[in-house]
TrEMBL record, chains A, B:
Record Pfam families: 4HBT_3, 4HBT_3C
Protein name in the entry: TesB-like acyl-CoA thioesterase 3
Ranges where the Acyl-CoA thioesterase-like N-terminal HotDog domain occurs: 28-120
Sequence segments annotated as region (Disordered): 126-149
Superkingdom of origin organism: Bacteria
InterPro entries cross-referenced by the UniProt entry: ACOT8-like_C, Acyl-CoA_hotdog, HotDog_dom_sf, Sec_Metab_Biosynth-Assoc, TesB_ACOT8-like_N
UniProt domain Acyl-CoA thioesterase-like C-terminal: residue ranges: 141-278
Length: 286, 286
């Protein structure tokens, strides 16, 4: 069976007839990284169900302002359900909870992800922009490093690399050849290969698309996310996105990973932070 | 009636007999700021109920690793209940949800706060610390500015200033005399006046104790929190804490506010980020 790349179809949720606030989806194996489905992709799926639920009606709120995800178990390719619980409908924002579940090995449902989120209307935002953060400086996409340059064993462990057009700044890929910078920063360009332009729900996936920033500190191995919170601050303009991952506090076997997403007009459109567990060298050696 | 200052008593939760996972508490008016109870204090209360629930038993997890709070309505002094829902008990961490409710004006319960959190055991953390963030440099507490220097109308609007020993770095209090630095940073020393030493549950309050960082950008008025996520990364050592609030993205009528808490051994013990709504000058003028 051929698979036509289509982010919207792959994150689609279908409201279950007769069961309000329950949505069915089918997680595609293309979005795997390590053992499970990419955490950002799951967040986009949950976000889509929340948008359908909180965005319904004339006074609905369809844009994520803030969304916090707690990862409970490793998700697999295949069917999943998202159940949304509306906590508050307000004038300017609404808040909901969402739970993503899959049938476990014994057939009973297992929760993969629990989410809290506040949605609103990004078009309501004031024009005032006083962002003091500066957009990253890096070479143009055609001078950056695509996934085709990654080692085959790395790509085999991360099928999602074939699903996105990600070009890393050569200054932040030393880790791939055993020479991490030690600064704790990885940055790159992002777009979907099928040409679909970015929107707030895509940003929820993009905040988690770069390799773990711990690679740039010379600590390899996937870094499973405990918690990931994203603030979407504006609708992104069409074109390439720039993504910057960084960390300031790698300690005790955990690290915080901050992501910023900048759009083609130099607007900081999303900020995220996650707490991830890192396998330390002494653990790997055991 | 005299009131003896006691953070532990003021954040105490009592498990309701016969109703597992329901805790009663009484929010003290001393912790008001603007119209409601301080969001950090509420987070400490919710954290205490989560610690009681997730920390129970031999394999319990009593320390917050990550806790995300979504603020739904303005809380008031008086009775409140916290209901905890355990989502997953794991070997190294456990995850739960908590809901803080109060009787509304018509007597029916109104949800103030919904929380998701992952708890573990901070003593299990590895010794490896590679934090690249640097502790803030500021004058000693006795050369910093205490709440007694705040304008009386400001103190009247923030009773909690009488409940904490907070000393702001003179370099970041220009806003109090109409000369904000424009950098978007406020920092200071913190301790409880009753001499109680810091612990992880106190940190949940301290992340939200400084004035809104928007003051340093010359935008006054309280900045209500939509969402606040805190990562507790280590148990704080006894002594003064240093707190730094900063923002990089003040735009569209919202700002992200980052807090770092450093302990007396120069360890970065907590990081938090919140999304807050700011009243812009044009709004204030309307």
């Amino acid at each position: 069976m051929t698979h036509t790349r289509d982010f919207d179809r792959e994150t689609a949720v279908v409201r279950r007839a007769g069961e309000p606030a329950v949505y069915d989806t089918d997680l595609h194996g293309d979005w795997k990284v390590g053992k499970g489905i990419n955490g950002g992709l799951l967040l986009s799926v949950a976000g889509r169900a929340l948008a359908a639920e909180l965005g319904a009606g004339e006074d609905g709120h369809a844009d994520p302002f803030s969304i916090s995800a707690y990862y409970l178990s490793t998700s697999a390719a295949g069917p999943a359900t998202v159940t949304v619980d509306t906590l508050r409908r307000g004038r300017s924002v609404s808040t909901g909870a969402a739970s993503l579940r899959q049938p476990g090995e014994d057939g009973t449902e297992v929760e993969r992800l629990r989410v809290l989120a506040t949605f609103g209307d990004l078009d309501d935002h004031l024009d005032d922009v006083r962002t003091s953060a500066k957009p990253p400086r890096m070479p143009p996409p055609e001078e950056c490093v695509g996934a085709e340059s990654a080692p085959p064993e790395f790509r085999a462990d991360a099928p999602l690399l074939g699903r996105v057009d990600l070009r890393l700044d050569p200054a932040t890929v030393g880790w791939a050849v055993g020479a991490p910078s030690g600064k704790g920063e990885i940055r790159g360009w992002f777009r979907l290969p099928e040409g679909r332009e970015p929107d707030p729900l895509l940003l929820l996936m993009v905040v988690d698309i770069l390799p773990p920033v711990s690679f740039d500190l010379g600590v390899y191995g996937w870094a499973p996310t405990l918690e990931l919170t994203t603030h979407v601050r504006a609708k992104p303009a069409p074109g390439w996105l720039r993504v910057v991952h960084s960390t300031r506090n790698f300690a005790g076997g955990y690290l915080e990973e901050d992501a910023e997403i900048w759009d083609s007009t130099d607007r900081l459109v999303a900020q995220s932070r996650q707490l991830a567990r890192v396998r330390m060298p002494q653990e790997t050696a055991r």
